[in-house]
Design brief:
about 90 residues
Length: about 90
């Protein structure tokens, strides 16, 4: 009944109920925070692995670019040698 007087016992009961609810909520939040910390730590480790992999891949790309340049120079030299041999062959024919 909305018109019933509020008693000390009622307020005490209400306070205790709120206290229990807050305690349960606090435990839930604490548990969720712990889980988030574990997940964040895991993600941090995975991010570190990705960053290290990125550095390694960057180094490999540089190595491959250098190898491509070396092979292009070698191909140019071989092409010039073939052209020179063809020119010598034509002059001797």
């Amino acid at each position: 009944d909305e018109t019933a007087p509020v008693t000390k016992g009622f307020l005490t009961s209400l306070f205790e109920s709120l206290r229990r609810d807050l305690h349960a909520l606090r435990k839930d939040i604490s548990h969720e925070v712990k889980e988030l910390r574990v997940e964040l730590s895991s993600l941090g480790g995975r991010l570190t692995q990705v960053e290290e992999g990125e550095v390694t891949l960057g180094e490999e790309v540089v190595d491959l670019q250098q190898e491509v340049l070396r092979l292009q120079e070698q191909q140019d030299l071989l092409q010039m040698t073939v052209e020179d041999l063809e020119n010598h062959s034509r002059r001797h024919n």
